[in-house]
Amino acid sequence: MSTPPTHKPLADLPPSYRPAEEEPAILERWLQGDAYQANASADGDPYSICIPPPNVTAPLHLGHALNNTLQDILTRHARMSGKNAVWLPGTDHAGIATQTVVEKRVLAEEGKRRTDFERDAFIGKIQAWKDEYEATITDQLKQMGCSCDWDRQAFTMDDPRAKAVREAFFQLFKDGLIYRGKRLVNWDPVTQTALADDEVESKDIDGNFYYLKYPVCDAEGNLTGDHVTVATTRPETMLGDTAVAVNPKDEPRAKYIGQFVKLPICDRVIPILGDDYVVIPDPDSDDAKARMASGFLKVTPAHDTNDYEIGQRHDLPIINVMAPDGSISKDHGWPAEEWDAAEKPTDDVPSSVGFVAAFAHELLGQTREAARKAIVRWFKDQDLLAEVKPYRHAVGHSYRSHAAIEPYYSDQWYLKVTDDKLAGAALRALDESQREASSHDAFNAKTPSRQDAKEEPTGPTTGLTFTPPRYAKTFQTWHENIRDWCISRQLWWGHRIPVWSLQLTDQQAHIFRKNLDNKTDDSLGEGTDDAFATSTFLKKKYPDEIGLRFNEATRQLFCCVREDHPEILRKLSGTGWVQDPDVLDTWFSSALWPMSTLGWPERTPELDLWNPTSVLCTAREIITLWVSRMVMFNLYFLGRLPFKDVFIHAMIQDGHGQKMSKSLGNGVDPMDIIHSHGADAMRFTLASMTTQTQDVRMPVDMVDPHSGETFTPKFITASGGVKVAAPTQERDGKSMVSSYGLASGEVKPSDDQPLARNTSEKFELGQRFATKLWNATRFALSNLAEAEPDAVTSSLSLADKWILSKTVRAIEHADKTLKAYDFHNYAGGLYEFVWNEVCDWYIESVKPDIKTPEAAKSRKALATVLDVSLRLLHPVMPFVTERLWSGLNAVCPQRGVLGLDPVECDELVKAPWPIADRALIDLEAEEVFPRVQHVVGMVREVRAGAKVPPREVVDFSLHMEDAEAERVRPNLHLVETLTNTKMVAVGPDTEKPEGAAVVTGPAGIGYLHVQIDTAEEAERLNKRKAELEKSLKTLDGRLSNEKYTSKAPSHLVQQTRDQRAAAAAELDEVERQLAALE
RNA sequence: GGGUGAUUAGCUCAGUUGGCUAGAGCGACUCGUUUACACCGAGUAGGUCACAGGUUCGAGUCCUGUAUCACCCACCA
After folding, report:
1. CA-based angle A1035:A1036:A1042, to the nearest 5?
2. A665: left (phi > 0), else alpha (psi -120 to 50), else beta?
3. SS3 letters for A129-197?
4. What is the ipTM of this complex?
5. What is the pTM of this model?
6. On chain B, which bases lie within 7 A of the protein's CB atoms?
7. By C-alpha distance, which of A6, A203, A1, A16 is closest to A774?
């Protein structure tokens, strides 16, 4: 159902392509015409791509534009190639990120915090934000030309996706892969939630090493008068110390093992123990730690992951001294008896305790930083501070709030990704060719691949391939060192964890354990109260709908609910069960994306057709966060990979090599570029800048809304010496708002602060190319007739044969590069083909005679070349090619030549990809045409040098051997056309006219009949002579080397001999001409 | 601390198994508005391929080392 073209004739259009005037109508036509829609029952090999769902936190930036351009190129190419192609769009709820931006906005606009609202009310506010930005994002994608199947748009938190999350969680819970654990997590004190390992980013911080003296004592706390010195960067955590450790191999210090210290401030008596982990001091060591170490390590299991592990080994108590916001607190794990004792000093307790408690009161409620200062001061005052040394070291920071991460002891849900069925399966999925040698168990399993999936394999389980290949290493290393995944987040915005819990009494726990031993699950909870009996009831009535788990240590009973069945919920909530308040890590739902977008857990036709998807196209930063987890989940739940190809593309940076980001104000809104240069220009530029090695640098300019001129915004230097752009730009005393700042909702334009759009000169490349294509088509269309006679290749001119040959090669080049995800060369190859070959040479060759009856075959060839060019360019420049396509269809509907006869189609978006017959490759034409080009180049050089007016027709004659002359003779007209000369003689007898300029070449000599200054001619010939001599010297050097002639491949040696002969012949001529000049 | 990538013309970047007399776009300079295109055409200039060694008949390309930059990973004594 195609709409007939309604455009004006092209002749009425201006010489420049105006994207803003053309793109909306074309977009509308595609959307109305269902151009992007896919049908699972349609013909064609399946091809599918899942969009990496953008976060609904903010509008898309140029990084997204690149990512989606590449996917659209692949999708459109697949669709045109006859595949049953679908591109599945959607957005991500981005739990922590979205909640954070909304919290910020609510605080700014209403002065209220999240906790001032009911949970549902605040979620409503986030939902409104999500709706707004999802709409913005969708509109951006559409205007970029992204050919997503919009009927299938998904959101990671909509109903179908929620169903998938619940099902996946339930299955993993039942399979014993999800567990509750109390351990150290990466805690973000600002957003007050746990973070996964890869949500933590390290930054180097200039800090200090503090050397604190701890008094040594006996087990009863009697001081010996001695002391040990611990070294730490975090003095404030000493409040939670429960031991001091020494390396047993550390001769001078090992003697302290078995003694005790009385922890200052707290007066806690803690042991000195031996542990290999402790670094032995060595002032000459390469290891900074060994140089700085004192040999005594304070052990704070609640606030340091290593200390936690030492604590586990030695069964130390864990004392948490902080509240969730990171302030010092006595209410989150500090032993009450210790505190109470300190609170009320008596005669039985050493007097210092009272003093300590009084000081501790000063600490309570202080931030980590303030507490650090206070404690250091205290140690100094007590003469217990031995030394302070500056030390630069890495500190983990929240990727969201950028606050320093606090290792924090808390209860969380974990997914056991370390299980072989998850991480092991992901490792084995990596294609053999990309694996590195490894001793990891996954590769040495006795029965590999058998245990990978819950079900038998239903598709590929191996062959995962990264492009560029080096990223396979990131993937492998990640899985070899993976730790269990903390999946709970203390947020409101996200998938609520579908687990209810019940705290059992000792009696209940006893019964439960007994029943567990007897494996009589049915009698669970018999003879106990309602709350506990509920589980029995539910277990019997809904055996497939709930999963039960008992936590021995905490006596908690957990019930995982598969779906929100009313009776189950009623029973649970009515009998004292409490639903877990936390939500799941965002990436849990993202990990299911290739399944959930296609209907899983239902076995839909779409799921079986389009999963595995064809390729995942993303940036390297989320290989661990996302790629890994999709691979593990798809393998686990479906028994096959979610995709085999992973294409990792470049990142876009600003002109200073900085990552673009909203907070730095250097982000560019794709809509600004579409506004100024057009979607095609943006797409083409981004694609052609995408190489496999380099990140893309995109200098950011701004358009001044006051004057309209473009300028480079000022950059200010931030503390780290990093250059960042100011979000609100100042210029000539007037301030303005960048459209990116506007989009973030932080600033709004006004009369005082009008809107300044970002831009970058880089996009002129694509814009110029679109205009060039536009004009080449205008030329063609003004010369083509509706029905040109059929052309037979044998009677085509040299230029026709040459360009058709090149066209075939262009098709092959496009196919080859797209298959290899080599977008730079796909775009670059077509640029060169259209601009240099079609426009500069072919059109210039046929231009003068194109309207004559004799040129009918050239017109047919031209129409065909244009047809193919538009098809090949459509994936990257869909708008302008579609617009020109309707013009071409209107003027010359019947195109094609023998061997290249593309199928007609009303709309380019649905047109078939060209298939080339290699018989059209004309080696003779490909050899002769460049000779013409060479001669033309030489003549043009002379004309330019001699300042011959371009319009003046100059006589030209060629001196060459008969054989060569015969070859050239049919194409003399071409030379005349391209050089504006008249050929007066060709052959071995041609003599040089008096005063003529000489043009030398490998096949002969040309004489340009112009009066030329002798000195200039001599200069030009001498220059050529020098070039030839240099070349000859190189070639001779190579040939005189016996080892070269004997060892190098024979065809190379022959090539060198030919080159030498040609250079020598030309040098002879040049010298002869030089002699004649004198 | 470990890893990855980069360093090529004034700028931004190509350069696939070693064969290069090293390319493109932008910018610069000269000429030109001949009805597809001045968002254009024709032409010119501009590079000891970061540095130092090595392998080879031959190195921008492979190896070793050094320097600088970027990013990723690592348990913040």
Report:
1. 105
2. left
3. HHHHHHHHHHHHHHHHCCCCCHHHCEECCCHHHHHHHHHHHHHHHHCCCEEEEEEEEEEECCCCEEECH
4. 0.94
5. 0.86
6. 1, 3-6, 12-15, 19, 21, 25-26, 30-32, 34, 36-44, 56-58, 69-77
7. A16
